[in-house]
Amino acid sequence: GIPSLPANQTTKMLVEEAADVLKRANEALIKIITRIKTIAKSLPEYQVVRDMGGVGDTLAPRLIADIGDVRRFKSAKSLVAYAGIDTPPYQSGQFIGTRRHISKRGSSAIRKTGYEVMRSLKSHAEPKDNAVYQFILKKEAEGKPKKVANIAGLNKFLRIYYARVMAVYGC
């Protein structure tokens, strides 16, 4: 059966106290998220990232925070490697492996946020900035599984992200 507590004053007090704690935690969380958004909006790359397809007011600060200062990467390829969605080389003699998995050697936070961006991109109408959207559709039309197409789209998204943010900083 379902566990229950006796209906008495002590139980009522415990439930009310637990509800108060949850309310205070939720209020603190809202303050923190508001502060994060305020800080993110002050960054020069915020509007560029915000204008990219699939990135909204919630995902933009997360993406910027997960990646950090993009100028520390020498190329878009190194950003993709940091995200852990590059494929490690797999060859031996004459054999060259073609069906390889992502390396997962980088930041899992970027992969998670990036996957959410790809899901958001696919679940809404085609954005004005549709290069990644069209790329994912092309990969799916080629017969790639949806997850494979999304990761390939994330790879393209991060390369575009790198180029646009570096342009903002004049690098």
Automatic annotation (TrEMBL):
Transmembrane segments: none annotated. Signal peptide: none annotated. One of its GO terms (molecular function) is DNA binding. It comes from the Bacteria. One of its GO terms (biological process) is DNA transposition. InterPro entries: Transpos_IS110 (IPR047650), Transposase_20 (IPR003346). It holds the Pfam family Transposase_20. Residues 47-134 form the Transposase IS116/IS110/IS902 C-terminal domain. This is IS110 family transposase. It comes from Pseudoramibacter porci. The lineage of its organism: Bacteria, Bacillati, Bacillota, Clostridia, Eubacteriales.
